[in-house]
Amino acid sequence: MTRPWWFEDFEVGQRFITQGRTITEADIGSFAAWSWDTNPVHTDAVHAASGRFGVPIAHGILGTSVALGLLSRLGIFETCSIALLGVDDWRFVAPIVAGDTVRCELEIIGTRLTSRGDAGILDRSLVLVNQHDRPVQRGRIGLMVATRPDDSPPAEAVALGARHP
């Protein structure tokens, strides 16, 4: 289990890289089914064969969802997350196809306390890259996070396993 992270533990310039996740045909089909987006570019191999990419491609929002899921697996936002604030300047740079393995690269590009002072805002730059280290999606996703509770030990003490009285 990772130590709890709070607003105070983040600083501009920090970078994090997630594990990879391989996108499957089942992922694309399942996303199409529950989202009701059955556009043939995603769901029809015969149609897609004559299209721009030659094969069905994953829904753009599927890639974005996977990026957020991969960030969740880092464990650093689990304790402190309050609310996703928005997706800004998001670009779908290249298609994602079944068999691609993607990972998310995150950089903290801004931090600021809210006016109430009990939470902070993390400005985060994300790049979803494939197995060839090529960006497939990129943009910024803001996140409101909690500040360290008064009864929470400092990060160094938690990291070293120190006990807090």
Automatic annotation (TrEMBL):
Domain MaoC-like: 12-113
One Pfam match: MaoC_dehydratas
SUPFAM superfamilies with a match to the protein in the record: Thioesterase/thiol ester dehydrase-isomerase (SSF54637)
Top-level taxon of origin: Bacteria
Family to which the UniProt record says this protein belongs: Belongs to the enoyl-CoA hydratase/isomerase family.
Entry protein name: MaoC/PaaZ C-terminal domain-containing protein
Originating organism: Aeromicrobium wangtongii
